[in-house]
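Example record for the data management plan.
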Amino acid sequence: GVVTKDPESGVMNVGIYRGMVSAKDRIPILMWRAQHIGHHVTAWQNGGSSEMPIAVAIGWEPSLGFTGGSPVPKGVCEYDVMGSIRGAPVDLVKCETVDLYVPATAEIVIEGYLQLDPKNWDMEGPFAEFTGYVAGDKSPKPTIRVTAITHRNNPILRGAIEGSLPGSYSENGICSSIMRAATAWNVLDRSGVPGITDVWCPPVQTGINLVIQMKQSYRNQAKQAANAIWGSSAAHVRYKHITVVDDDIDIHDYAAVDWAIAHRVNAGEHDVIIMPETFGAGLDPSTRKRDRNPALFGTGKWHRVLIDATMNLDYDPDPDLGGARFPPKVWPEQKDVDAAMKRWSELGLAKPKSG
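Corresponding structural encoding:
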């Protein structure tokens, strides 16, 4: 966990950022201006500082990595969230050379100052990333000037496997699927979007694609949900593509979501919306190289997509369908399913799949 603090409020932030050893006392790191560490960098620069205190805590309880990689709201310290998860406060100790606090039982702590003047930056990148690609172009990046390293006796250098690929989900991918779905649901609730019944990020793409299940009560409700997500800081490096389905679609079943996209999406009825030129992940290889330069732009650039795979409430009720907007599905009534199941074993048939 990388620890920094707001120079005005004193609230600390704990985040996960990659770093590369460039010399025995120098570590350039990858960060983006839209992240909380980026907010702190801007605040220290606005105050006239040429460097910012920073500490890197390596090896602790799993709640540190899980929380540090989550988009915790601005002004909330991740140590408080960790305490909530573990059911007890985090024991902290003050660093030796900087005015920051780290977990008392961390395995290794690196202390120092982040150089804010680009003239003092070292080259960093590329590196294996959550995208499953080697990403982050080689370029000068903000660099830690190390002032102290402390550690336990026989310290354990703990790491995590980066990058998810089809058939190979990383630790990062599993954690992201949980934290990013939970965060998106919180954003939707706090934005007042009603009818949300489930939210999910499949692990293989670590939160880039978000699926929302909702019970609609008015037209264009899916667009409201997507705009709420994209307008939040949590969307900085996630939620590039959002798919919204009705509450009869199991969002944890890709076949069900694919079926809804196939038969409830009409691009000519604005069921596919492109939100152009928003902030986004600078590690996405589908973006132009120029748009992945954190020194030039502060963040990446995305053109986001909403797929509204809900039944369109802008259609007129059809009297031939009893006032419904879509025809009934062909799945048999439950009484007929039950009757068939009663005879299944009698006929010596293999056990059917549930569905």
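Summary line stored alongside the record: The helical segments are 36-46, 62-68, 78-86, 171-190, 221-230, 254-264, 294-297, 334-344.
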